[in-house]
Amino acid sequence: MIPGVGVLTQDTLWCFSQVKGTIEIGATEADIISAVEFNHTGELLATGDKGGRVVIFQREQESKNQVHRRGEYNVYSTFQSHEPEFDYLKSLEIEEKINKIRWLPQQNAAYFLLSTNDKTVKLWKVSERDKRPEGYNLKDEEGRLRDPATITTLRVPVLRPMDLMVEATPRRVFANAHTYHINSISVNSDYETYMSADDLRINLWNFEITNQSFNIVDIKPANMEELTEVITAAEFHPHHCNTFVYSSSKGTIRLCDMRASALCDRHTKFFEEPEDPSNRSFFSEIISSISDVKFSHSGRYIMTRDYLTVKVWDLNMENRPIETYQVHDYLRSKLCSLYENDCIFDKFECVWNGSDSVIMTGSYNNFFRMFDRNTKRDVTLEASRENSKPRAILKPRKVCVGGKRRKDEISVDSLDFSKKILHTAWHPSENIIAVAATNNLYIFQDKVN
User: So which residues are the signal peptide here (predicted)?
Assistant: First the structure.
């Protein structure tokens, strides 16, 4: 039996297996995956990389011979979304790296997605073409215009079959609105607007207007020396088009209502957990910075990820989270060396499963963690090339801190901090997950008998 999303029982541990071998995107710095996102049906999976490319994978349909075998994901389209640029006014290079990808719900045969680098958001249309028109009257077969005087007969143009082509075309380019680096984009539930957030400002855009945006949050102080926090992530509520949240480097979350005022400089709700004075250290502020914020599909909860924990907040309770999950608490004693090698500034993402019952986030050594909110059980799994055979079942991993190490455990001192799972995605309705480990994309699904 294939357990459905959210039907994991008390005596069931997540049992994910490899859908297919590792999908290696490439081997250079530009090939490192920087964004992963399923579309609303889960039939498409998009990845963005540091080289500015977007690769879209499509799920194969079930074959008639193997009805119960669900389709694998294969490359559907690849296109260059962003190019490196140079800002001559500020003498700054603008990287082509894709920071975020967001899909729009499918309205017709074409697919639409937003992709952004540090400065520019683009709306892409991805469409199929398997027919070509023939029999023009005013053009010859090469496409050159004919002299109307030479046309003596009229033809009816016809569509001829051709090999399937997938075309990606930029429909809108939203530029010149951000002074600082864009860290988030989020599509509103009205599907007419979206927002983009950088370190100090959040802008609201209409999909049809590229030369104007509305500034809805501005936390830039008059004197930049008084700057104490920056915006780290922002997202719209999944159902209420007037509500959004944004997180800060101080570990706080603000819920704003756009009906209150045009500039949401006053929050409606403020979520913050008071710090335990006994745990205060030099690194407290750094590790409390929130790297990702996500609404649950129901819209009732907010999930946040900081360096060591994942927290779940109830929208109706602002003073503390209702759930806190330790992702890699064994690193608390390693914060000094993690600060020296800059790993302490890594920005991990977090995702919900389709029913909001399980959450997933990444760690080091190509480990990723899953937490069941109902049973309070958790598991550590590894995305590695050694066990990346198709249909291979992932074995739970454990990290030991000091003392004797068991055979199946790995010592905290031998963790590889250059291998990190920063970006993950969960299929909207099934137990299929996508995990980006540097330049490798792993796709796992729950155990198939």
Answer: none
Question: What are the residue boundaries of the structural domains of the chain, listed by start?
Answer: 14-126+167-446
Predicted local confidence at residue 62, as pLDDT: 67
For residue 151, which amino acid is it? I
What is the mean pLDDT of the segment spanning 72-100? Answer: 90
Within 10 angstroms of residue 264's Cβ, the number of other Cβ atoms is 22
- What's the Cα-to-Cα distance from 98 to each of 49, 74, 438, rounded to whole Å? 6, 21, 14
CATH number of this structure's domain 14-126+167-446, picked from the four choices 1.10.1240.10, 2.130.10.10, 3.40.718.10, 3.10.180.10: 2.130.10.10
By CB atoms closer than 10 A (0-12, 13-18, 19+), residue 395 is exposed
Task: Tell me what pLDDT residue 403 has.
Answer: 67
Kindly state the average pLDDT of the residues 402-413. 78
Angstrom distance (rounded) from CA 174 to CA 291? 24
Q: Are 268 and 250 in contact (CB under 8 A)?
A: no
Residues 438 and 34: beta-carbon distance below 8 Å: no
Please give the model's pTM, rounded to 2 decimal places.
0.86
The strand pairing partners of 426, in sequence order, are 433
Contact 347, 292 (CB under 8 A): yes
Residue 144: what pLDDT?
83
Q: How far is CA 59 from the centre of its chain?
A: 18
DSSP 58: E
Residues 173-197 pLDDT 10s: 999 899 999 999 999 999 999 999 9
